[in-house]
What we know:
Elements: H1 9-91
Amino acid sequence: MTGVFLISDDHRDVFDFERLERVVAxxxxxxxxxxxxxxxxxxxxxxxxRGIRSLEGQLLEANQKRQDVxxxxxxMIAQLDHLDAQLASAEA
Length: 92
């Protein structure tokens, strides 16, 4: 028979338990490693989220300032137009 390994009853329990122990130990180590990596990724994600919230706040402030400046410029243009009209009527 090709690919079939026969293990005697005497060695089956020892072999299986040792192998099982190695596999479980490897899985535990892999789980610890992934858990540590997961914590690190969560920390980085939270830092990125805080950065995004900060940038969004700055963007809102900048947009508000832009709107305020635009409104002031419109008011100044309106005042200049009014002064031009007054000067034109005074010259006439």
